[in-house]
Design brief:
The strands form three sheets. The protein has a four-stranded antiparallel beta sheet with strand order 2-3-7-6, covered by helices on one side. The chain contains ten helices and nine strands. The chain is of the alpha+beta class and about 400 residues long. It starts with about 25 loop residues before the first helix and ends in a 6-residue tail after the last helix.
Length: about 400
């Protein structure tokens, strides 16, 4: 199987111009093709309804689990153990369907599961990771608060000791999967600094309130988490998580998936616009035959391909010697910024038809407004790169 769909006679798909398939192993191509088949046959036929009704069926978790997508880049505990590039390609194919699909898999694997995998006890890993990998349980990640997004170190959620127990109080906001979750990784201030806790959502005092009337990421469940004297045993603490670097390392895992994922939204938008332009007649000739249309398509293809080459470079680095946070910032900043520009430009090619859910670009553009903000805003990624270049932190 290949990453790109079979072209129509006399044409090639955008990423073929860059020979992307030649840069992938057979296993990587097969994984991408398998996920693309799921998206084309199961997800795309339903995404318009899910987006319009602002729902995401909980049973998708088991379907993703059966395909090995949940925590697929982790080793053991029922996880697939793929390389980083394969995980990235899966994110790309999922987001070609909708950012909500990639967000679900990303939060489950790179935030909820990774936090337990990297910082949890063996007991926590055995209890939760196999269930999360199979989709028998759903996880979420509670870091962001109503007043603390880019500055998570200022969080007000607190955990205090009460005998051998911990008692948590606070509010988390914009939590993907919150209303679906069986377990939440919650970060809180303690007398010893920031600590993480594994919180079953059935615990007394834990409430998830879904956020409604969203204009973006509608095929995704986004929630507020309220912790009102949530009492946890000492064993709920993530024993290896010490300080803010722990949750930030989890975010870096999720950002890596976005570097690839955003390109999926861009690719789908571009392919949709090309197919539309070839069949739509304007002044008795195909829209695709006009110079201005071809200029748009060529420029968008350039940015899509450059973003793909950047993503693959970061993926290979991650699989070999590791990748630095500011390098992930570089990829997230560029690829999301270019993806949203591509989706918007593709909508112009579709004209009035582009404002309906029959065509994907405006839906992708709406979703990418959220992707532009979460896992670090563009402004914060710019400053992360600036700090790497100058040695000075402009945001403090």
């Amino acid at each position: 199987m290949t990453v790109t769909a079979p072209p129509k006679a006399g044409t090639i798909r955008p990423l073929e111009l860059f020979g992307v398939d030649r840069l992938l192993s057979e296993d990587e191509r097969d994984i991408a093709g398998t996920v693309r088949k799921l998206v084309e046959t199961r997800l795309k036929p339903n995404v318009e309804d899910w987006f319009e009704s602002a729902t995401l069926p909980k049973e998708l978790a088991k379907e993703f689990g059966q395909l090995g997508l949940l925590g697929m880049h982790l080793q053991g505990y029922g996880c697939a153990g793929t390389n980083a590039v394969s995980y990235g390609l899966a994110c790309l194919e999922l987001e070609a369907g909708d950012s909500g699909f990639r967000s679900f898999v990303s939060v489950q694997g790179s935030l909820s599961m990774f936090s337990i995998y990297r910082y949890g006890s063996e007991e926590q890993k055995q209890e939760w990771l196999p269930r999360l990998a199979a989709g028998d349980a759903i996880g979420c990640f509670g870091l962001t608060e109503p007043d603390f997004g880019s500055n998570p170190g200022g969080m007000r959620t607190r955990a205090r000791r009460d005998g051998s127990d911990w008692v948590l109080n606070g509010t988390k906001m914009w939590i993907t999967n919150g209303g679906l979750a069986d377990v939440a990784t919650v970060w809180a201030q303690t007398d010893e600094g920031v600590r993480g806790f594994v919180v079953p959502t059935s615990t007394k005092g834990f409430t998830a309130n879904n956020i409604h009337k969203k204009l973006s990421l509608r095929a995704s469940i986004t929630s507020e988490l309220v912790l009102d004297n949530v009492r946890l045993p000492a064993s709920a603490e993530l024993p290896l998580a010490r300080g803010l670097s722990a949750p930030l390392s989890c975010l870096n895992e999720a950002r890596f998936g976005i570097v690839f994922g955003a390109l999926g939204a861009a690719r789908d938008s571009l392919e949709t616009a090309i197919d539309y332009a070839r069949t739509r007649e304007v002044f008795d000739r195909p829209l695709s035959s006009f110079q201005l249309t071809q200029e748009k398509l060529a420029n968008m293809t350039l940015e899509l391909g450059k973003g793909m080459l950047l993503a693959l470079q970061l993926g290979r680095m991650k699989d070999e010697d590791g990748v630095r946070p500011e390098q992930i910032s570089l990829g997230k900043l560029n690829n999301v910024r270019e993806a949203i520009a591509i989706a918007r430009e593709c909508r112009t090619i579709l004209g009035g038809s582009g404002i309906t859910l029959e065509y994907s670009p405006l839906r992708h553009a709406n979703n990418l407004e959220s992707v532009l903000t979460y896992e670090g805003t563009s402004e914060m990624h710019l400053l992360s790169i600036g700090k790497a270049l100058t040695g000075q932190a402009a945001f403090r």
